[in-house]
Known about the structure:
Blueprint: E1 4-7, H1 12-25, E2 30-34, E3 48-50, H2 56-65, E4 70-73, H3 79-84, H4 86-107, E5 110-112, E6 115-116, H5 140-159, E7 162-164, E8 166-168, E9 170-172, H6 185-195, E10 198-201, E11 209-213, H7 214-226, E12 238-239, E13 243-245, H8 247-255, E14 262-265, H9 270-275, H10 284-290, H11 298-312
Parallel strand pairs: 1-2, 1-4, 2-3, 4-5, 5-7, 6-8, 8-12, 9-11, 10-14
Antiparallel strand pairs: 11-13
Helix pairs in contact: 1-7, 2-4, 4-5, 6-8
Amino acid sequence: MERILIIGACGQIGVELTLALRAKYGNENVFAADIREENPLLAGTGPFAILDVMDAEATRALVRKEKITTIYLLAALLSATGEKDPKLCWNLNIGSLRQVLDLGVEEKLKIFWPSSIAAFGPTTPRENTPQRTIMEPTTMYGITKYAGELLCQYYKNKFSLDVRSVRYPGLISWKSEPGGGTTDYAVEIFYGAIREGKYTSFLSENTFLPMMYMDDAIRATMQLMETPIEKIKSGMSYNLSAISFSPKEIAEAIKKHIPSFQISYKPDFHQPIADSWPKSIDDSVARAEWGWKHEYDLEKMTDVMLENLKKKLKQ
């Protein structure tokens, strides 16, 4: 029987992944944990514990007590937040991963750990960035993601650990708030459109970045973890892509629903981070090896985001 632990379950990805896994595997078989208090969206849906992922003994005790077979390690400091405290970003992102990988070897677990487009850098080809390419990240967050990919590959090769990973693009969701990432404007813009009819973007109007609606990201994650191990050829994280757009393009999509919506641009410290990342991603390897295929384009995502956020915000 699958027994799943999600560490970082109260974050933007964690909330929706926890709910999706509980719907598939049963509430009692998916244990949520976070250093924060339980997210209201998770309350009453299944077991939850306060857990500091840096506490190796507490994590090991929880895994053994609950007879965990699979860990999704989502706890991390994101790009913009990581630049404010690079030391903490390294210690949390890499320290937690190394401890969970060691635990995976000890307890014979299956591990999921997310990488990101932040693992790429300004020397990476920016159009249709390939699966295997130059990776010279310039943010501490990106450095931890590239180092983490190498660490996962090492544990897979050295200890035959079943560890799997994708490079998430920017993720967009209406259910939970973003957590300090450079692509967060693409969520904030919907809140601004509904609440005030305007938004000031911290990225310039023609800054193109790879993006994905959260439902696609959750489905891809679960699909990868359910794929037979013999089909998983890559030791590094898989490129994952759906759509690519700029602040100007998403504003135009919103204006089709809210014609009076106004956007302005005031690039800040997020801009050089975004400028070091790809504009679009080639994820043909994931599509070929385990059948990945996205469902949401910009128009469909905009429809769903506005519809659900209006209900959430009672607008």
